[in-house]
Amino acid sequence: MGLNSGQWDQSTSVSIALEVANYKGVTESRRNLNSISTSASNLSSPTLQAALTDTIVFKMPHSPINPAILYWGTPVVLITTTNEDDTSNISPISSAFWLGDHCMLGLSAHSQTTTNLQRTKQCVLNLPSDDMTAAINALACTTGTKDIPAGKAQRGYRFEKDKFSVAGLTEQASERVVPPRIRECPAQMEAEVVGIYEMMRDGPEAISGALLAIEVKVLRTYVEDRLRLGGYENRVDPLAWRPMIMSFQHLFGLKDGKPEESTLARIDEELYRLPK
Ligand SMILES: Cc1cc2nc3c(=O)[nH]c(=O)nc-3n(C[C@H](O)[C@H](O)[C@H](O)COP(=O)(O)O)c2cc1C
Predict the structure, then answer these.
(1) Domain span holding position 32
(2) Ligand 1 contact, 81 CB (< 6 A)
(3) Quick one: 195 and 104 in the same domain?
(4) Is 244 contained in some domain?
(5) What are 95-120's pLDDT values in tens digits?
(6) Could you tell me if the CB of 179 is within 6 A of ligand 1?
(7) Tell me: the pLDDT tens digits for 183-231?
(8) If you write DSSP's letter for every residue of 153-208 in order, what string do you get?
(9) Contact status, residue 272 vs residue 264, Cβ threshold 8 Å
């Protein structure tokens, strides 16, 4: 689309209207987009001018940015571990990804969870659903560490001994590890530590050793029965599973309804199973 062409044809108006509609979140589904596309062919010139202005302002420029955090959106995980006095701790985190039956956790070296993982090598990764905001918010800005690290004190963290009570959550006995599962979480993974790696070794001295990537191996996974995909022994129904997503410190759910077509989803999940 050339801005100086001086030509407004129907396809230009449709593409501008679609971009603007898409960008402003006017459309929620491909079906809505299509109906806007049809009506866009009747747009008058002043409307088009406004749409074009919007397009230029909202869509066209990319400029460098240096955010303090790059939390683009990952699931919240409630990690349960066992304290030295055999009580249980819960920590919400969101720096987590899975490959095969292993998970990598990005953790502050100064959290109670890290201390517990280093000592016991065991945890449960509990995944809250997107209706569990109250529990996450109750746990936010708490630590099971009595001597609150300076950085956390500055951000208003407080010591909490009994995180289950604070969050209104219930302990459920695990089978393969000592830390308990969280009954309210629809998905739970018992896991053991298989590797601890120091992150940002290329960073400044001041943060040396402060951030760890902790690799855990999932020993057993549980889901609420309603999350099982019908007709399969070992598949989770992604339409039933509503994870809590943290993006730039805000909590989100996934949109309702059927997701857009995914080419990747044509691959049989079993082809990803790694040899034992
Ligand atoms: C939604 C959410 C996501 C978080 N993500 C992380 C994370 O990925 N890594 C981390 O070290 N801390 C994360 N935190 C902060 C920890 O919860 C915090 O360090 C807490 O004090 C840990 O508890 P603990 O000291 O009892 O282990 C997150 C907190 C919230 C509420």
Answers:
(1) 10-59
(2) no
(3) yes
(4) yes
(5) 999 999 999 999 999 999 999 999 99
(6) no
(7) 999 999 999 999 999 999 998 898 999 999 999 999 999 999 999 999 9
(8) HHTT-EE-S-HHHHHT--EE--SSSSSPEETT-SEEEEEEEEEEEE--TTS-GGGT
(9) no
